[in-house]
Amino acid sequence: MKKMITRRQFMAAAGVVAAASALTACGGSSASTAASSAAGSTAGSAAASGSTIKVGVMGPLTGDASVYGQAVVNGASLYMKQVNADGGVNGKQLEIITMDEQGDETQAVTCFTKMVDQGITALVGDVTTAPTLAVAAESADYNMPMVTASATAEAVTYDAETDTVSGNVFRACFTDPFQGVKMADYAYEKLGYTKAAVIFLKGKDYNEGLAENFVKEFEAKGGTVVDQESYSEGDVDFKTQLTSILGKNPEMVFCPNYYQEVGQILAQAESIGLTVPFLGGDGWDGLEGYATADQLKDSYFCACYAKGSSAAFEDAYKAEYGEAYPNGFAPLGYDAAMTVVYGIKAAEEQGLEAGSDEYKQAVIDAIAGGTIEGITGTFTFDEHHNPVKSTAILTYVDGKPELKEMF
Fold this sequence. Notes:
This protein has 407 residues and is α/β, with parallel strands linked by helices. It has helices at residues 7-14, 66-85, 105-118, 129-139, 176-190, 205-221, 239-247, 259-271, 293-296, 311-321, 329-349, 357-369; strands at residues 3-4, 30-31, 48-49, 52-59, 93-100, 122-124, 146-148, 158-159, 164-165, 169-171, 195-201, 224-231, 252-254, 278-280, 300-303, 372-374, 377-381, 387-388, 392-397, 400-406.
């Protein structure tokens, strides 16, 4: 049986390191779609105010990662608005407290503790890995039900070295190891590549996690990784690394980085004559517009959601926000909120007091044993609190991502 982690253990292992308007960093307001703001400053008694249940939604709404944070917050808020429009949960409206943590670990913890003081019952968040690790560590003291839409590092929910599960934390997305393994399997089994190279940003859990697990799996399958190149945060010139890769004659390059840098890497690869296909992970979501159709030809990446998979979600998002959903983080935010509400419904059915220890544990237990009919797929949770579902493999047609297959 897996051990459940304490805050102190988690901090050591991690290195610790409806719909409210988004305001400034750790500033926030709470409002339901059918009720005015409710007062309250303590967890537990403030978790339910009259006919509302308070839920926190956190992400980087400003700064470099805001394209991801805003998408998650919008997706989560959209789902809870729909729940409220349908009568809420057990006759109660969901009152959302939204805060901007600016992509910073310290700000994220401060935002979380402020949310606790305002009486949240559960949290949708955080968005990127480092702040999520920090919040997950803090949340253990409160046994706060927490579902991240998009933090992919394995340590968010599970410490492999101590075989310890973070009992209150779940995720709607895939893990770094999962993505690296999946893309290695796809490259070798489906695309027939046997010689690969890798280029990745060093010092970041996401990039290193995908790269390490791709290499391990690709070689285990029988492939050869002819070169592994890394670069530092802030670098804009990748030609030295790409020239080294070119000299090793790979059949493809695995590039598990975020789309802004991927666009630069693809352009510089083309400029030196490195024209083999590139493959990546979900950080590629949003790459169109940062690379040409020629640079993207025969490239593939994995994601939790493919455009067109849910017309109802996409139409509702556009109607609510006046624009198409920006990237795959929005549907993941939607499913993370759906997961939280799934647990809240179970706690409400038991007649428990919102915010109480019994209520929060009931939310956690329901999620752990539940089946979520999400828009990124129908999924359950494994023993490490990761979703069990298929992967969307996307390729580019005329420079735009299209679903190739589920794998």
